[in-house]
Amino acid sequence: MDRVRDVRTLPKAHLHLHFTGSMRPGTLIELADKYGVHLPEALRSGRPPRLRATDERGWFRFQRLYDIARSCLRGPEDIQRLVREAAEEDLRDGARWLEIQVDPTSYAPRLGGLSPALEIILDAVETTSRETGLGMRVLVAANRVKHPLEARTLARLAVRYRDRGIVGFGLSNDERHGFARDFDRAFAIARDGGLLAAPHGGELSGPASVRDCLDDLRAARIGHGVRAAEDPRLLERLARARVTCEVCPASNVALGVYETLADVPLRTLWRAGEPMALGADDPLLFGSRLAAQYGIAREHHGFTDAELAELARQSVRASAAPEDVRAKILLEIDEWLAL
Ligand SMILES: [Zn+2]
Q1: Model pTM score
Q2: Distance in Å, CA 121 to ligand 1 centroid
Q3: What is the whole-number distance in angstroms between the Cα of residue 15 and the centre of ligand 1?
Q4: pLDDT tens string 92-120
Q5: Domain count within the chain
Q6: Which domain holds residue 112?
Q7: Residue 2 covered by a domain
Q8: Which of 13, 260, 290, 321 has its CB 3.0 to 4.6 Å from that of 315, i.e. a possible disulfide?
Q9: How far is residue 322's CA from residue 329's CA, in Å, rounded to a whole number?
């Protein structure tokens, strides 16, 4: 009989967390009051709104809420607070390593331009990591509804700041817009510059979008990718290539990708030998953080403690953490299981 250990003490890596989406709801309310920003009830109530991103209007609503939250981050001190609190929340949830995803374009106008914005973010991450002890790195993410030239600029910028803590390059926003191949040049710049390719795919769109991430962007990890479960051959390919899916169960249900938590195909991916890194995506809007995703695997998919430990190992192996850091976390996972 397997013992039920606390998932919050299970050491893990968090590889799918968006910048503004990591904000504490209480912090958003405080910042909105500070700047006189009117928050819609959905953001003020502290209860996450039920969204339906599977239709265009629902996705638009999600983006609008996200934009309002982002507009409350105005000064370097707000950025520092956000990063610090994201780290504190993740530490409480057992994270030993966090890769936070950000599109600096959105913050550039208020922070003096693209490079200054990125520098403020990287400074905040470095300081927080040093002071809290949580290993932290940054993924720069381009926006797929914007022009691919913007993505190239971002990729070059990300490569230039690589030694300041940037480990990867992503692509976010509505997968139904445009084609992954429109961003192939940007991803080539990022990969040639030594960054890991981690675009979103297989969330709002089906298996074809995951295949595009592999073929056109040579993804090393897929943001979400869960809908690869609809195509056994694709899943086999992902598993063979050891391309990890950053699966975010609570987000999937909040955005209407799946009806219930039990419908998220965690077991299908697991049985196919597909590595996963569970993530919270946008806890501000989806209402649950990192450890809760492991709780969902246990409660809704019957993952045993040994299986949860293996999920945590998969998250660590897929991370960009240095080898010695990975080895240490893997050891701590064994210790958790041996308790
Ligand atoms: Zn995401």
Answers
A1: 0.96
A2: 18
A3: 10
A4: 999 999 999 999 999 999 999 999 999 99
A5: 1
A6: 7-338
A7: no
A8: 13
A9: 11
